[in-house]
TrEMBL record, chain A:
PROSITE patterns, alphabetized: ABC_TM1
Subcellular location: Cell membrane
Keyword Transmembrane carried by entry: yes
Organism: Demequina lutea
Protein name (Swiss-Prot/TrEMBL): Multiple sugar transport system permease protein
Gene Ontology BP term (one): transmembrane transport
InterPro entries: BP-dep_ABC_trans_perm, MetI-like, MetI-like_sf
Keyword Cell cycle: no
TM helices/strands, residue ranges: 12-31, 71-93, 100-123, 135-157, 237-258
């Protein structure tokens, strides 16, 4: 490689860093301002020269239960989603027939329905069946967004499982359930992890269902806490932004720890 | 048993109906789920939109049939025109901004340079954090008195007085579009980058021999081959933008003076703000018709591409 080419590439890198820095500036600003109590009066420093973490202690004290509620809902959503979606994905990957195309189309389209439209009717149903203001109610509602996505992601992978392998299992006397548990699930591990990550993020980030399917304030996910801040007059922005930082943590952690899986999911549900 | 269609598995050739049953059972929970959480609410919305479904209904259980009254109320409401116009402007503005910036960045990232994949991964962050959290950051950044955006613009002498981004009826929609563009860029970059990478490199080599490089190579090779992906990104973009709710509610709540009210936020405010669930359902139905039109377009385009391939 000539020196000229190399410097050109480094220039590209420099430009790329500037672009990404600009795109991520709001996130930097969120962290920076959350470390400066009294944010909201006058201009604050561009860098947290004297970072003050006291606001985090305050926020964890005030919003700890909301964070736990969000965690419970997110984990619940992951479990419900995987239990429903794994067998369905397997079935749709290996089931011969035209019904498969119809079901896949319905799953694809269901992801395009605005949640607020669903919430409008779901509220009435939840009042009737007593799921309003309940963890199971929110878990089930959030899983409705995660299930179609997960089925499409996992099915795309399961298509590549060789039929010979499944036939061999059958010859050895394994039934469908045994085949699913001992062969399909271990092989599809990566796509299952991707689905689990996104199911977690969907539920953790959900605001529409949290807002419309709770009325008492008894069940309050962290997204609702942030909204409650935003709907009141804000004197000091530091607690609001600190809560926002905490709510953004799972996404940051997952992107750092599981970048491979996130990248796989980024294209998963939308493009077959 | 002979199947006329190609069977994928020897399982199906056996006399065992048990496997067929098992596969149906595997699929059943997902189908029930989709029916309960998509089909049933959609039907409910249609029914509710013909009923006087309001706060009293939840106490009395009575929801009298009112025919098309909800639709008359909605269409006749002074803010309905504004709502539809805002939805169109918000969608158009968001799509243009996201797509143009997304395409430019996708082209840039298709070059090879150190740290490329790390930077592209970082770009996904705005897309992964909760939308309501993003709206809180931007609410603060756009604050007229203490927000960093006005601060920078003032320092650069690009403006002489602070701009009331979210409190001015003439600016709020623009501000909400800017935030939504920021949110949509990662998705656009990811899909378009994938499309650009699919273009066979031999084509560029052949074109380079004929002296077509850079902009000309893009115009005659990349763009024509990228067109199917572009269509998909645009259609999906419209579908996702019609769904946008969290961001607008978090930034402006549909205000000031309904200047950022869209079909999605309007449906919410009718139902959950004023407890006029019948009217909320009517607006929901208008929104879902738009969404499904574009969903049909998406299916049509993807199917055509699959057939062409």
């Amino acid at each position: 490689m000539s020196g000229n080419r190399l410097s050109g590439r480094l220039l590209s890198t420099a430009f790329g860093v500037i672009v990404v820095a600009a795109m991520l500036f709001p996130l930097y600003w969120m962290v920076n301002q959350s470390l400066q109590p009294g944010t909201g009066s006058g201009n604050n420093a561009l860098f947290p020269v004297h970072p003050d973490f006291s606001v985090y202690a305050q926020v964890i004290g005030e919003q700890g239960s909301s964070l736990l509620t969000s965690l419970a809902i997110a984990f619940g959503c992951v479990i419900v989603t995987l239990v429903v979606a794994i067998p369905a994905a397997f079935s749709l990957a290996k089931f011969p027939g035209r019904a498969v195309t119809i079901v896949l189309t319905i799953l694809l389209v269901s992801q395009m329905v605005p949640s607020i439209v669903i919430a409008n009717a779901l509220y009435k149903t939840y009042v009737d069946v007593g799921l309003l203001n309940s963890l199971p109610g929110l878990i089930l509602a959030d899983a409705s967004a995660a299930i179609p996505f997960s089925i499409l992601v996992m099915r795309a992978f399961m298509l590549s499982i060789p039929d010979g392998l499944l036939d061999a299992a059958r010859v050895d006397g394994a039934g469908p359930i045994r085949t699913l548990v001992s062969i399909v699930i271990p092989i599809s591990r990566n796509s299952i992890i991707t689905s689990a990550l996104f199911s977690f993020l969907f539920a953790w980030s959900d605001f529409v269902f949290a807002l419309t399917l709770t009325t008492s304030g008894k069940i309050r996910p962290v997204t609702l806490s942030i909204y409650d801040y935003l709907s009141s007059t804000i004197q000091d922005w530091a607690p609001v932004l600190a809560t926002s930082v905490l709510s953004a943590l799972p996404a940051v952690v997952l992107l750092v720890v599981a970048q491979r899986y996130v990248a796989a999911g980024a294209l998963g549900g939308a493009i077959k | 048993m002979q199947h006329p269609r190609r069977t994928r598995l020897a399982w199906w050739r056996g006399p065992s109906a048990g496997n067929r049953l098992a596969f149906t059972a595997f699929l059943a929970p997902a189908v029930v789920y989709v029916l309960a959480y998509f089909a049933y609410p959609a039907i409910q919305n249609v029914i509710m939109s013909f009923q006087d479904y309001s706060a009293t209904t939840f106490f009395t259980g009575e929801a009298p049939w009112v025919g098309l009254q909800n639709y008359r109320d909605v269409f006749g409401s002074p803010i309905f025109g504004t709502t539809v116009l805002n939805t169109l402007l918000f969608t158009a503005g968001s799509i243009v901004g996201q797509f143009v910036i997304g395409l430019l960045l996708a082209i840039f990232f298709s070059r090879r340079f150190p740290l490329n994949s790390v930077l592209r991964a970082l770009l996904l962050l705005p897309w992964l954090i909760p939308l309501i959290s993003s709206s809180s950051i931007w609410r603060w950044m756009l604050d007229p008195e203490s927000g960093v955006i006005n601060y920078v613009l003032l320092q650069l002498h690009m403006i002489s007085t602070p701009i009331p981004w979210l409190t001015s009826p003439s600016l709020a929609l623009l501000a909400v579009v800017i935030v939504n563009v920021w949110l949509g860029i990662p998705f656009n970059v990811t899909i378009l980058y994938g499309g650009i990478k699919e273009v066979p490199s031999e084509l560029y080599e052949a074109a380079a021999l004929d002296g077509a490089t850079g902009v000309r190579a893009f115009r005659y090779i990349t763009w024509p081959l990228l067109r199917p992906v572009v269509t998909i990104v645009l259609v999906l973009g419209v579908i996702y933008t019609l769904k946008v709710f969290d961001i607008i509610i978090g930034l402006t709540g549909g205000g000031p003076a309904n200047s950022t009210q869209t079909l999605a936020t309007n449906s919410y405010q009718l139902s959950f703000g004023q407890f006029l669930f019948g009217q909320g359902a009517a607006v929901s139905n208008i929104l879902i018709v738009f969404s499904m039109l574009f969903a049909a377009l998406y299916l049509f385009r993807t199917r055509r591409q699959a057939d062409a391939a």
